[in-house]
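Researcher: Last one for today. Full complex below.
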Amino acid sequence: MKFGGTSMAGTERIRRVARIVKRQQDAGHEVAVVVSAMAGETDRLVNFCREANPLYDPAEYDVVVASGEQVTSGLLAIALQALGAQARSWLGWQLPIKTVEAHAKARVDSIDADALIAEMQKGVIAVIPGFQGVSDEGRITTLGRGGSDTSAVAVAAAVKADRCDIYTDVDGVYTTDPRIVAKARKLQHVTYEEMLELASVGAKVLQTRSVGLAMKEGVRVQVLSSFIDDDAPAADTIPGTMIVSDEELEGMDMERQLITGIAHDKNEAKITLTRVPDKPGAVANIFGPLAEAAINVDMIIQNVGRDKGETDVTFTVPAADLARSMDLLEAAKDQIGFNRIIPDTNVAKVSVVGVGMKSHAGVAATMFRSLADRGVNIQAISTSEIKVSVLIEEDYTELAVRVLHTAYGLDAVEA
Amino acid sequence: MKFGGTSMAGTERIRRVARIVKRQQDAGHEVAVVVSAMAGETDRLVNFCREANPLYDPAEYDVVVASGEQVTSGLLAIALQALGAQARSWLGWQLPIKTVEAHAKARVDSIDADALIAEMQKGVIAVIPGFQGVSDEGRITTLGRGGSDTSAVAVAAAVKADRCDIYTDVDGVYTTDPRIVAKARKLQHVTYEEMLELASVGAKVLQTRSVGLAMKEGVRVQVLSSFIDDDAPAADTIPGTMIVSDEELEGMDMERQLITGIAHDKNEAKITLTRVPDKPGAVANIFGPLAEAAINVDMIIQNVGRDKGETDVTFTVPAADLARSMDLLEAAKDQIGFNRIIPDTNVAKVSVVGVGMKSHAGVAATMFRSLADRGVNIQAISTSEIKVSVLIEEDYTELAVRVLHTAYGLDAVEA
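Model: Here's the assembly. Have a good evening.
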């Protein structure tokens, strides 16, 4: 079980979480719980580091920010004991949760779960702070913001859990954002691949990295609401969304939808370079500096230029990286040889996602036709095996999502 | 160097502490720094534990409250790096600082300082959270409130420090409380034994346990103000108060005062049991239950009773333990066989302290005569080798302190 910062914000809520956890044990499960810091606490600690030195040492930053989850894990163990349960905390360095790579953005390498499993078998509820681990040098590490989801999946894999329940402030994964489409439906099941595409294009339910890890380790993840009535039955019977493998889903013998969901992402920015020489190496000159700066370029279109031997190149980057991208490209202007650089943040990416499209042609055609019928102009297109994305003018985002939700038959039937 | 919670309250103050520390290194010293949590933070964390469960598990309490010093040690390392110094934090479990006995009130058993010494010799400033250690089982422990002074002395002993500078919100140890006696003088030197008596009777400059440890390990401790100008010269030249051994002080060949200081303590309560049977075992029946409950009985007087075979017994306990003491004594009433129990919190203990009295008679007589001359009635007396304490009515406390400060020639000469 994993609980996020909103669920852990203050002792009253932590005692509520304790009741939800205890009910799982009472239902016959062995339980380990991974917790986030209290909502707002990590921001407070990060600000302290910035105030102490804007160029802070990531190793010491980890010492500071890991304390937020240390506090909530101790408090949840105390609150569980108050309910008569046996419980204790294991910090990242105590298990240990060994990590590799840089401080402040470490990756889980291995978890020694022997002590954990032995104690869980004796009836002890294990409480583990998310987000933190320990380096080979024995120093505290953190996994980067949102890393607690990944901690939960990694612990679930280490104890060979039947299920990893991620309690969050939504009650599952929807066919699209219910704030945009009132008829959005909660999905009972979604595959890892679909969840990865939905997450990476803007459905912010789970950290993308945690879904990748769950897929790799075969951990069955359930997303469900932490705001259920704490007298409700145990989570086995609460309809959250299960994230499972393609094979498991096929074995369920259900009628599959062609398309599972519609995602959108307004945090993209478009850059157009005009009159780039149409010769070998030109594209490398553009994207080399961006790749070195770890800026993630997504959609790329090369337009036919007006003049022979020249072409316009358009691509998207995360909006947060736009200013930096512009600086890097201006610095390489002579080498690239473009005429003008035109930024545009007034764009959004809308995607249709579904494993069903692997075996069905015509998905993209339906998308383009539906949008064209409603006057939505497509600026760029990208596709993967289970996803088709289009870049459109930002003002059309909600319209496009609604049109596609209906076009693929995802609207809930009125009760 | 050790800095308390007031000095560490917020990043602006932590950056100030960094400048004070850096100046010591610039003056040619190898430096380790022990830090408290930000002022108020430990109270906040303790309250969380109480809210989660009033009968909290001390082992989990330690996980929660130790985080306060973890945060400030990381932040101070960052702030030192911002000044161009090499610095890193070592948490209690990382050195390790091994402790024994119960959680929430552990004692330092040993410190492995090899890594610390090696890094300090390379010019790295070591930052160590106070108050925390690690148990044999590898769990976080804390030393009890105020334990950071003890951590500092223990680290100083482990690295064989020339000096342990404790920065606090007073600029040294005074002959008495300057708020009561305007002519109180700052002491240049005081012995461990004197400091222990001054601390235990109410001069709240250092935690008593830290002074005992300094005496045992022969650590030279300096008390000085953390509110000095941070452009002032390094601490070698700032006149704080040095706490040293009797032998070192004698070697200084200074004119010793007979009396070093006057202490007072209003946190005492008096209990009188009337008509206790005057027979063997009676006193054991009274003080047995209090000792079992770890209540510290200080002064004891047995009055001659009015009736033959009976006696009144008066003694003092910490005011905070009065209610519990009354309950314990009432519960044992039949066994003890007293008539009435009379509590009195309107009392104060005033003490004169000085190693000089070992070799001088007449110290106590001067005390009693001076107080009697000004109409201060003495309710009880206790003495040690270097201290004479009297119990008086609380309203007379300030008068008594001033009278004694003058009587023993401690008043500062007007400039």
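Chain B has two domains: 2-250, 255-415. Chain B touches chain A through 41 residues (CB under 8 Å).
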